[in-house]
Each structure stands twice: as structure tokens, then as C-alpha cells.
Write a structure and sequence with these properties.
elongated, single chain, about 5% helix, 36 strands, eight-stranded antiparallel beta sheet, 3 helices
Length: about 575
């Protein structure tokens, strides 16, 4: 039998909008469509659109719309042609466009359509009740948001698509005429476009498009994507990365998404059919695309969500959290997008460098042996005025069988202001490098002010310039800097942790005079929280430091897996 449709020459025409039986499997979104309009505008013929209407009268089944002027940057031409019925600047008959019955006429500007009394009826929608002879022909519009209009319509543009369809899945239905499509340019196969008519990712049920990957049973994963571009035309549209317990519309999920109006969000539905919790990120310089998104799952239920502007230095968006009973037996994950838009309109995201890796997490807090097997391999000293008080000296030991360092401050009153009082286990180093260590514990009755961390120091003098990435029991991880010798010390960073009782990792990277600060909950995925400039000579001292602000107590930082990595 026969099927309803229209076979345009796809080497010369690309479908940019369609409804009902004329729509193709590949639905291009606004980003790809804008590229097509740019290509058509640069051609010798200029922009010519072919409006198809299978249920119109014969004279109106194929109408050619020819642009006479460039499309204004603030005009969404397809929305005006497919959903609106109004007069707007930039789309005025005989000023900005004309209509024709054949492509040759449109190219040559011959036999343009006429309108009764030279009046295009904008309130009737395209083609304004006009016709080849100028008689009034009513009800020939194809509007995607109006079921009373003509059906089986499409708009083709006079250029070719370079894209090929790649698999994607619609979850929860869609609004309008098309659920959406994923497509790639064969010349750039890692770059993926995802167009969607799905309504939203929110509440107790979702409606969106996903490029889905089967991740069943993979409890320890690192998933990353580069979001190059996102266009929706409406607020609350979303695009980004998701781990989901299944393809059900109300499934448990963890997502990191850019939006049309409120920056980057972390969304969590912690049980099937439950409400969606929203965590926003207000750091405006990280809301701008392009950006890298990352979700890490550990043990099947523990999630860390990151953002980065370069794919190297990662910022933790919310503190690592647990979703109890997250079902990984049917888990899927991938790139997602939702439109939050009107019928007939698609949002579109452009992704690149998508990757999924199985990861192995190191043991978080190694058992500390109270009595070290050996105390060799570490040089340490008191810095500042520690030795003048009651002869209570600091110390440092190293247990080779557990790779644990214990650095004890003997009444060293603080690493602060213009001079320091601390104990320092140190190593000479020069050039560019990375230092990192796990902090298993801080042993001190002074929970508020005892500090333990890793340090880069210009000298062993008490007033030396330094960079210090530290932890305290009560306020968690922070950064400190004394930018020049004798300058005041300042603190920065944020209090991710209400306490430090679960331990963590710290890292400093030196590149010339620039120091990058990072922390981690597992020693594998580090979160960048500051970059500072410090005046340092090429040859410096690096190591582990501890201090306490109370003269009457001692404090010990327990470190493990200390590393120096030359760059």
C-alpha cells in the first residue's frame, strides 16, 4: 500500500520543522538549524524555505518562502512560521520575505504571490491568506501548537544536513510533534547533538531525551562529559549528565544539569516516584558554557558531582552524599536534555568527550599502628618559638609498614599571622611538582584550632612565605597563604565539612609562583577550591605540618600515602 509523505531531495533540502506524517526520524534542534540557515544565507540563492502541507488545497501544498533581508539575531524565525500568528519586526511581507509557487521563481524573483488588497493577514498565520493570483484563500496555515490548523506539514531549507542519527531514548513522553533526536557529524564523531521535545526533569516524573548507556551492576563509575553549547529559548530547560536506576519515567536518579535561567543544578530523586530535590550552584563564573560535568558513584550508593572549566581542575558542587537503596542492577546513564517548551519546539545541547570508566577506590582510612616499626626516612624540626616553652619539642615519625607519618606539634601555638609556630616534617624540592597526602586523623583536645596539612615553604624561617592546605577537626578543609616573607597570613576556601572525623586527602600543585589547592574524600577524585600566587624561590621545602593554638596541649596530625610528583 501507499504511505503519506513527501520525498524531498535530501542533498539539496534539510527538514527543519515538521508535524504528523511528514516528520522524519531526525529532528534537528535550534543549534543545528542555525548552522543550516548560516549555510543557506551564504549560498548564491540565499535563504529559501519550502513549506509543505499535505492537507492544504493544491495551490498551497508547496509554498516557497524567500528571505529578502538577513534574519535578525533576536528573531526566532521558525517559531514565527510554525507557532505564531502575529506581525513582528524582521518578518514583514515584501520587506523581509516574499512567497512563490516554484523554487525557480523564488530564485529568480519572478511571479511572486499576491495578497488581497495588498494586505498580508498576519493574524491568520503563514501564508497570510495570500495566493498565486491574489485571491483570498483562508485556513491554509500549519501551526504546530494549534490542532485546528492544517495537519501533515513541514518546513525544508535549501541546504543539506551533514548529520547522521545516533540512538537516543525518550522517557516520559514529550510535548508537541517530536520526542527528539541525537545526531552526529561523521567528520567529528565525538561531538553529539541532542534535541528534545521532552517537557522537564523535575517533580515525581520526568519527560526528556537520553543517550542511554547500559550500566547495570557497575557500582563504581566515573562519568564525564563536556557540554559545549545549550539552547532552549525558554527558562527551566535542562541539559547535562545523569545516572538513573532505570528508564522508567519516575526512576531514582542523580543529575548535574545546566539550565536556561538558574545556572547549574544538581537534581536527586532518592526513591522511585519520590519528589526531586534540587541543589543550586551560585558561583556565576562556573555557570557559563562550555563546561565539564562529572558524576562519580562509589559502592553503588555514594555520589560525588563535579564541574570544571578545563576538564582538569574539578569543583565539588555539593558535598558527597548517599542515596540509600539506589538500584544499580538496571542502572543507565548518559547525556540528557529536556525542553520545558511549547509544542513543536525543540531544545538542543551539544556534547563532546563523553566517557564512562570503571574505577577502583582506595581504602579510605588505613589502620594506624600505634608503635611504628621504623622511624627512619623523615627529617623534621620545630619552627618558630616552640622550643622556648617548657622544652616541649615536637616530633615526626614514619611507619614503613603502613606508610603513615605522625607529626606532633609540641605546644606550637599556630600557623598564622606573620610568623609560624609549628612542627614541620619536610623534604627539599625544586621546580614544578605536585604534593599530596591523606590525613587519617588529627589527635588533639583542641578541636577548633589544631591544624594539620601539607605545606610548600620558601625557607625554614618562622616568617617564610608559604602555601598551606589543611584540615581542622571542627571546620574541615581550608587553604592558607602567606604570599611573601613576613606578610600576614590569610585563609580562604569554604567549610564543606562540619567536622573532620572521617578524614580526607589534600593536594598542592606548584607551577612557578602559582599554587593550586585541592581536596578529596577518597584520594582518587580531587576537588579544586583555590589557586593563589606565592613568592617562592625555585628551591623550596615541602612537607607535613601541625600546630595547636593552646600552649597546654600537644597535637598530632596522622598522614598517610605522602607523595611528591615532579612535573
Amino acid at each position: 500500500g501507499y504511505s503519506f509523505g513527501y520525498n524531498e531531495d535530501q542533498t539539496s533540502w534539510v527538514q527543519v520543522a515538521a508535524r504528523d506524517l511528514l516528520r522524519r526520524d531526525l529532528a534537528h534542534g535550534p543549534i543545528a538549524t542555525a548552522q543550516f540557515f548560516t549555510a543557506a544565507a551564504a549560498s548564491a540563492e540565499g535563504i529559501i524555505l519550502q513549506r509543505l502541507c499535505g492537507n492544504c488545497v493544491p495551490t498551497h501544498q508547496i509554498v516557497f518562502y524567500k528571505r529578502l533581508t538577513p534574519i535578525p539575531v533576536d528573531l526566532d524565525l521558525l517559531i514565527e512560521l510554525t507557532t505564531e500568528a502575529r506581525q513582528v519586526a524582521g518578518n514583514i511581507w515584501r520587506t523581509d520575505f516574499e512567497m512563490y509557487s516554484t523554487y525557480d521563481d523564488a530564485v529568480n524573483g519572478t511571479n511572486p504571490w499576491l495578497c488581497l488588497n495588498n494586505a498580508y493577514n498576519y493574524g491568520a498565520g503563514f501564508p497570510g491568506e495570500c495566493s498565486p493570483s491574489g485571491i483570498r484563500v483562508a485556513n491554509q496555515n500549519v501551526r504546530f501548537n494549534n490542532e485546528a490548523s492544517r495537519r501533515n506539514g513541514a518546513w525544508d531549507l535549501n541546504t543539506a544536513s551533514r548529520y547522521a542519527v545516533t540512538p537516543s531514548v525518550n522517557i516520559g513522553g514529550y510535548r508537541g510533534e517530536h520526542p527528539g533526536s541525537a545526531y552526529i557529524d561523521p567528520a567529528s564523531p565525538t561531538e553529539i547533538h541532542l534535541a528534545t521535545g521532552g517537557y522537564d526533569i523535575s517533580g515525581r516524573s520526568d519527560s526528556f531525551q537520553i543517550i542511554s548507556h547500559d550500566l547495570a551492576g557497575r557500582d563504581n563509575l566515573d562519568m564525564v562529559v563536556y557540554v559545549k553549547e545549550f539552547y532552549s529559548g525558554r527558562t527551566r530547560s535542562k541539559a547535562g549528565l545523569m545516572l538513573r536506576s532505570s528508564l522508567e519515567h519516575n526512576a531514582t536518579h542523580v543529575s548535574v544539569l545546566t539550565t536556561g535561567d538558574v545556572g547549574v543544578l544538581v537534581l536527586v530523586r532518592s526513591e522511585p516516584g519520590g519528589s526531586t530535590a534540587t541543589y543550586s550552584w551560585a558561583e556565576s563564573d562556573l555557570e557559563q558554557l562550555p563546561a565539564w560535568f562529572r558524576i562519580v558513584i562509589a559502592g553503588g550508593d555514594t555520589f560525588s558531582v563535579f564541574i570544571s572549566q578545563d576538564g582538569s581542575l574539578w569543583t565539588l558542587l555539593v558535598e558527597t552524599f548517599v542515596v540509600e537503596n539506589f538500584d544499580t542492577s538496571t542502572m543507565v546513564g548518559g547525556m540528557v536534555a529536556s525542553a520545558k517548551s511549547w509544542p513543536g519546539y525543540l531544545a538542543e545541547a551539544v556534547f563532546d568527550h563523553f566517557s564512562i570508566q570503571d574505577v577502583t577506590f582506595p581504602t579510605f582510612a588505613p589502620t594506624v599502628t600505634p608503635a611504628p616499626v621504623t622511624s627512619t626516612g623523615v627529617t623534621s624540626m620545630d619552627i618558630g618559638y616552640v622550643t622556648t616553652r617548657e622544652n616541649r619539642l615536637g616530633s615526626a615519625t614514619f611507619a614503613a609498614n603502613t606508610n603513615v607519618y605522625r607529626v606532633t606539634a609540641g605546644y606550637a601555638t599556630n600557623i598564622w599571622n606573620t610568623v609560624d609556630e609549628m612542627h614541620f616534617a619536610y623534604f627539599p624540592m625544586s621546580g614544578n611538582f605536585v604534593i599530596q597526602a591523606g590525613i587519617a586523623d588529627i589527635e588533639s583536645p583542641d578541636e577548633r584550632s589544631t591544624k594539620a596539612g601539607i605545606m610548600i615553604r620558601s625557607s625554614l624561617n618562622a616568617n617564610a612565605s608559604n602555601a598551606f592546605c589543611m584540615a581542622t577537626l571542627r571546620t574541615g578543609f581550608r587553604g592558607q597563604i602567606r604570599p611573601t616573607d613576613g606578610a600576614a597570613t590569610t585563609r580562604f576556601g569554604y567549610r564543606w565539612d562540619s567536622d573532620f572525623y572521617d578524614g580526607g586527602w589534600v593536594r598542592l600543585t606548584r607551577t612557578g609562583q602559582q599554587i593550586t589547592y585541592e581536596r578529596s574524600v577518597d584520594g582518587l577524585f580531587f576537588d579544586h577550591f583555590g589557586t593563589k600566587n606565592v613568592t617562592l624561590p625555585d628551591a623550596v621545602y615541602v612537607g607535613m605540618a601541625a600546630s595547636t593554638s593552646q600552649w597546654s596541649v600537644q597535637a598530632t596530625g596522622v598522614f598517610h600515602d605522602w607523595q611528591i610528583i615532579p612535573l
